[in-house]
Design a protein that fits this description.
Length: 963
């Protein structure tokens, strides 16, 4: 997969707690919602689902390209999503991983647009762009300003019709290295070899789904230019593709533009499908693996039907009731009641020809995994015998239907309307397949769900256990990491690879001029309104009416920076417990009430704030706010729940000590800030084992009284309501909330005077297939300085996909899947973080190269005019697509509030960018960053890495993670 902007991804490196509950965007899009029942009476699921609609028109070009158009004028952007009906299922013997490798090559230039594709996307302000490969398809997508649509279509058509003349052996070799590092990165994570073992155990030899999409090292090494040419000619014709345009466009415009850019591309060979059976194991299978993991994980797996089976939705509901809901059978039994597990999950991973059903249970350390496994099997047997209740099915159906359409506020991205239409067209020959699926969810009954569960989950099962310990040679071999001897998997043939010809000479390029970008209007940020409740709580509101939903965030000036230094983890444990019981509701009741309302409550900490969020359907807003207020105002901190969550957090900390990035996140902050500074704590937000063990119920109540209180709160709201409608509801739920008598908390930001010299701290992680590098230093800027010029300069240094570090370590050298720099959005002193997961034998050289790149940028090789222009263009043109959803809008309002920016800040940015020069960017970077102060944390196999680090020229220390 190609990663989008590193600056967005790397901003996650600081201040985000894994304890925060994910906010599920439960957003049934329906006019019925706006007219629904009284507060507290959820709108009927069937009426909501019946109104969900993505109107579209479609047409085909003479060459077979299928085009689907959806008009949505809410923002001046168009989502472009092109799906090729080919994935790893179509790979011949000895060519595993090739579909994905080819996807990478598609991003590195075509005959009329050579060079990195993503640089051209950034140049036109594209957002939500990426490319992905899976078993059944390869897709490429981007959302662009309306004025840049011709440019985007030109780029997509050129790589569809005119690619081969730009593919070279050098590009192939580089991307082979990048993909191999992507493979190493995945395998370096805990449980990183499980997928290989599951596919090998569940599917017979020769089955097209039996090998992982990432492929084997040997097969990747054998890929040739002839393979590239044949793959392209066989699979990348317009008659094997679906193009969806969704957003600020109509079908007449689409016909003209698509015909212009794609009409002259000749059709390819008639697509040949590769069929696949849904196999059943002959008998139960038992597999035991070992890995560097904190908790034993139990798996139960079955192969079940693909997306076009009428039974898949029923089976999906069965799994959701059993282990997907917050109030699921497994959660209630193993996590809440018996307390022998720290987390559970049951879900379906759908594919075209088959799907994978999976149950996982993370056993609580100290519990007997064998006994827990037997209990899991007994619970499943009872569930299959007796089935779910009607209420469980309704709650699961509400959640599943909402989850299906949660991304439909967006036109593009991973889950927007373009993707929804394309997936239906490619897998089911029906862009409206989503409507049929939702109707099945809405009409499901306990009887229909039970029948599907018995039929498919009553078959022989794969019981796979991953226990703490060293990985075995046999487990590593499953990943295909062999140095010689050929491929380790044998998928089905669709052509004879031995008959493949040598690389041919590409035809002479067809010269096509790149179209200009039409004028793009500057961002028109929605109006922001302000009010206060009678008790003084500020309310910040913006209206967004695309879907009948409302997002609320009650933000407190607390966060991980407010954590108790003597008992680190108090803040995270407090927020984790908020929705685990109030003085009038149990944790199960809170979960069930959310599910019935179609609401989702989340609680978590960033570095500077504690946020308790709500996603609500508009007609259920009053009742949902009532639940939110109860969770915030009246947490019970029941002793049994405290101990249960304490166990989960301790297990999470143990797990962090097995994860390369989390290890570095725990180690680096105290080295940068010192122990006394509020930011000098693990960036993961989970605290320390000693701290979490020491926290008492009284400590949790005291933290709540000190920090989560009305005189320390701001309420942010974005969605389909008005301030006049909203304020009475907020007054009803929060207006009478009085601050406790104890003094409000205050954070003291001070730096000790200790020297922090540049050095390398090496954390030994034996058997690591890759090294994780995380460097850092403190800049001279705080978030409240609003250092927009420095942030823009960082895009050139390491914050974008065309940045200096990314292009060097990934694109030129091929040593890393991703590399870059970030300036996280904290309120006080901002760190510069340097990130690179690299192949083990290039660890030392990667640090040397990164240091040189940074030093040169800050001295002799500053920002070029071309870099300045591309960065400025990208920043300005991407603004209209950056605030498409109410979630985007809410985040922007909260960010402005945190660091003291005006409401119209984002509207002022285009002129700020236009006035910015390359010299300004260099000056900002050189004043704020002292590269000789970088401290490096390296997580890798010490026996292989230490000799390389000794040659870097910095002192090398051995680090430990005792707490």
């Amino acid at each position: 997969m190609i990663l989008s902007s590193l600056s967005r991804r790397l901003s996650l490196l600081i201040g985000l707690s894994p304890l925060a509950l994910s906010v599920l965007a439960m957003t049934p899009m329906t006019q019925a919602v706006a007219q629904s029942a009284e507060a507290g009476a959820p709108a009927p699921l069937s009426s909501l689902v019946a109104k969900v609609d993505i109107p579209y028109e479609e047409f085909r070009l003479a060459n077979g390209l299928r085009v689907i158009v959806h008009t949505d004028r809410k923002a001046p952007v168009v989502a472009v999503s092109i799906w090729y009906h080919v994935g790893s299922r179509f790979e011949p013997k000895g060519k595993t991983g090739f579909a994905h490798l080819f996807e990478h090559l598609m991003f590195y230039g075509s005959e009329n647009a050579d060079g990195p594709f993503f640089g051209r996307l950034e140049d036109i302000g594209a957002t939500d762009w990426n490319g992905t490969t899976w078993f059944d398809r390869t897709n490429y997508f981007e959302t662009v300003p309306t004025g840049a649509l011709d440019r985007a279509l030109f780029l997509e058509s050129d790589r569809m019709g005119h690619l081969l003349g730009a593919v070279t052996q050098t590009k192939l070799d580089t991307q082979r290295g990048v993909v191999q590092n992507e493979k190493r990165m995945g395998e370096n994570e805990p449980y990183g070899l499980v997928e290989y073992a599951q596919l090998a155990a569940l599917l017979p030899e020769g089955h097209p789904y039996r090998h992982s999409t990432i492929g084997s090292m040997a097969d990747l090494n054998s890929a040739s230019l002839a393979d590239v040419q044949n793959w392209f000619k066989t699979h990348y014709g317009p008659n094997n593709a679906v193009l969806v345009l969704a957003g600020d466009i109509d079908v007449a415009t689409a016909k003209a533009k698509v015909g212009k850019w794609f009409g002259n591309i000749p059709a390819g060979p008639a697509p040949q499908d590769v069929d696949a059976t849904v196999p059943t194991l002959a008998k139960d299978a038992e597999v035991v693996m070992h890995d560097n993991v904190a908790a034993t994980r139990l798996y139960r797996n079955w192969v079940v039907p693909g997306v076009n089976s009428a039974e898949l939705q029923q089976l999906d509901l069965a799994m959701t009731v059993f282990g997907g809901l917050g109030s699921s059978r497994l959660d209630n039994a193993l996590v809440r009641d018996e307390k022998v597990a720290v987390s559970v999950k049951a879900s379906i991973q759908p594919f075209e020809k088959l799907s994978l059903a999976e149950i996982t249970v993370d056993v609580k350390p100290g519990a007997d995994p064998v006994a827990v496994g037997k209990r899991l099997d007994a619970l499943l047997a009872d569930y299959l015998a007796n089935g779910p209740s009607a209420d469980e099915v309704l709650r699961a159906a509400t959640g599943q239907a909402a989850g299906t359409i949660s991304g439909l506020e967006k036109v593009g991205g991973f889950s927007g309307k373009a993707v929804t239409l394309a997936e239906g067209a490619v897998y089911s020959d029906d862009p409206g397949k989503y409507k049929k699926d939702l109707a099945i969810y809405a009409s499901a009954t306990p009887q229909s769900v039970t029948a599907a569960a018995r039929k498919w989950l009553g078959r022989p099962v794969l019981r796979l256990t991953v226990a703490p310990g060293e990985r075995s040679a046999a487990d590593n071999a499953l990943a295909g990491n062999v140095k010689a001897g050929g491929a380790t998997h044998s998928p089905a043939y669709f052509r004879d690879p031995d008959a493949a010809p040598a690389a041919a000479t590409p035809p002479a390029p067809t010269k096509i001029a790149e179209p200009p970008i039409e004028p793009v209007k500057d961002l028109d940020f929605p109006d922001v309104e302000h009010a206060k409740l009678k008790n003084g709580i500020p309310v910040v509101f913006a209206r967004r009416t695309a879907v009948p939903t409302v997002r609320v965030s009650v933000a407190f000036d607390a966060g991980n920076a407010a954590d108790d230094k003597a008992k680190l983890g108090t803040a995270g444990l407090t927020t984790a417990l908020l929705d685990e019981g109030t003085t009038t509701r149990s944790s199960v009741q809170i979960a069930e009430e959310q599910e019935r309302l179609g609401a989702s409550i989340s609680a978590g900490n960033s570095m500077d704030r504690t946020n308790v969020g709500l996603f609500a359907l508009k007609p259920n807003l009053d009742a949902s706010l009532g639940l939110l207020a109860d969770v915030i105002r009246n947490p019970a901190f029941a002793p049994a729940e405290v101990e249960r969550l304490r166990g989960q957090v301790l297990t999470r900390i143990k797990a962090e000590k097995t994860e390369p990035m989390a290890i570095a996140q725990r180690m680096l902050p105290p080295l940068l800030y010192g122990q006394a500074h509020p930011y000098g704590i693990p960036f993961t937000g989970s605290g320390t084992e000693a701290g979490v063990k020491a926290v008492t119920r009284a400590d949790l109540s005291a933290f709540h009284d000190k920090w989560l209180r009305p005189d320390n709160a701001t309420i942010f709201v974005a969605g389909d309501t008005t301030l006049s409608e909203l304020l009475p509801l907020l007054e009803k739920r929060f207006g009478d909330w009085k601050a406790p008598a104890v003094t409000k908390g205050a954070k003291l930001f001070r730096m000790d005077r200790m020297m922090r010299p540049a050095r390398i701290i090496l954390i030994d992680k034996p058997q690591s297939p890759q090294s994780l590098i995380l460097g850092g230093l403190l800049t001279s800027k705080a978030g409240t300085d609003n250092p927009v010029t420095l942030l823009t300069a960082n895009e050139v240094l390491g914050g974008s996909t065309t940045s200096r570090l990314t292009m060097d370590l990934r694109e030129t050298k091929g040593w890393a899947y991703g590399a870059g720099t970030a300036l996280p959005g904290v309120k006080e002193t901002i760190p510069l973080l340097v990130y690179a997961p690299v192949q083990t034998d290039k660890t030392g050289e990667s640090i040397i190269a990164a240091r040189q790149d940074i030093r040169e940028y800050l001295t002799t090789k500053g920002t070029t005019e071309a870099e300045r222009n591309q960065t400025i263009n990208s920043q300005i043109l991407s603004l209209p697509g950056s605030f498409e959803t109410s979630s985007d809008l809410l985040g922007a309002m909260m960010r402005n509030s945190l660091i003291g920016r005006p409401d119209d800040y984002y509207e002022t940015l285009p002129n700020v960018y236009r006035a910015m020069t390359a010299a300004d960017m260099d000056k900002a970077a050189r004043e704020a960053i002292s590269p000789d102060r970088l401290i490096w944390v390296v997580v890798g196999d010490a026996k292989l890495v230490r000799p390389q680090l000794d040659a870097v020229g910095l002192p090398v220390e051995t680090g430990t993670l005792a707490d």
